[in-house]
Amino acid sequence: MESVPPSLINHIIEWRKLPFDSPEEEEFRLAITSRINQLESAERESLVLKRIGTAFKLHHTTAPTSLHAAHSIRGALDLLAVRVWLNINGKLTNVATAQERPGRTNIPLSQTPANATTVATWEIWDTCLRALLPLQVDQDKLGFIELFGPRERDRFLHERDLHITIAEQLSLVIRSAQLFENVETLATTDPLTGLSNHRTLQDFLAEQCDEVRRHRSRVGVVMVDVDHFRLFNETYGHDAGDDVLIRVGKALQKAVGEKGLAARYGGEEFTLILPGADEQTTEIIALSALDHIRHVVFTAPNGEQKPITASMGYACGPTHGTHPERILKIADQALYASKHNGRNQVSSPDRIPKAA
Fold first, then answer.
1. What is the pTM of this model?
2. Which of 113, 155, 162, 207 has its CA 20 to 30 A from that of 18?
């Protein structure tokens, strides 16, 4: 401990004046031991709560914050293991596990808590002591935290109040991380299609162009425009138009997968950003995206099915430029070449009319 309270120092001075092994000496010894344990517990509580708060300050998002907090709790309380479980899409999911010796701790860490309730429980297992505490903010049930302590350590069961305090603090931190993620999602995602929004597109493309200039890497950009989109709005209403955009967005995301970024540029226009892609790869992915869109069918209120198609144009850095504005302009000109030549196709910069 960094400092000893004067009251405890006075107790120790008085204790040393008493005859050894006398009833009075025993009483003072127990009082001092109790006070030291209280101070140690308070210091441990202060330390672990501070570390939990630091986890959020460093990471802000749920999974890294939970993992950092789990390791901090395990280390501060000298536990065998700590597990954090969160309710994700209605399913209890283990998002963080911190172990004293990964793979060597003789406790069943592969199991999902079978007795998870909204009430904290402490149990004596064959190989360890285990606490299961709910993570909850008001009526919002976030999940659970499991603490595993050595079987021979009595202190574990005497620190129940500390365990509850830790669970309460961790609940607040995880809720803050979830709120941060929600705000970040709103700021970076198009609310209709769920794709990245225009701002995220511009930021991501700027980063990729910076890589092109600095490290001579490559980037492919595909501009996409839904053919005859105005007819869907005028004939069937704006809800139908929104449905078309959502379906096209899903098709584009499926085509890009993990290879790049699919974003809504604005209106009925979309953009694909493909890091590391040369012209051949960009064209292949664009053709794949076009094929995915062709498989999307809009069903009108009267049951009539309408095919959906799109026009696309692409450009690549550094071949067609090393700055976002230039690459987007070339890709957009290639897009309009597709529209001029009959729509429902992909055009390269080579097909841009000379007057463009």
1. 0.66
2. 155
Architecture of domain 198-351: 2-Layer Sandwich (3.30)
Res. 18: pLDDT tops 50? no
H, E, C per residue of the chain:
CCCCCHHHHHHHHHHHHCCCCCHHHHHHHHHHHHHHHHHHHHHHHHHHHHHHHHHHHHHCCHHHHHHHHHHHHHHHHCCCEEEEEEEECCEEEEEEEEECCCCCCCCCCCCCCCCCCCCCEEEECCCEEEEEEEEEECCEEEEEEEEEEECCCCHHHHCHHHHHHHHHHHHHHHHHHHHHHHHHHHHHECCCCCCECHHHHHHHHHHHHHHHHHHCCCEEEEEEEECCHHHHHHHHCHHHHHHHHHHHHHHHHHHHCCCCEEEEEECCEEEEEEECCCHHHHHHHHHHHHHHHHCCEEECCCCCEEECCEEEEEEEECCCCCCHHHHHHHHHHHHHHHHHCCCCCEECHHHCCCCC
How does pLDDT run across 192-221, given as a tens digit for each residue?
999 999 999 999 999 999 999 999 999 999
Domain ranges of the chain: 6-186, 198-351
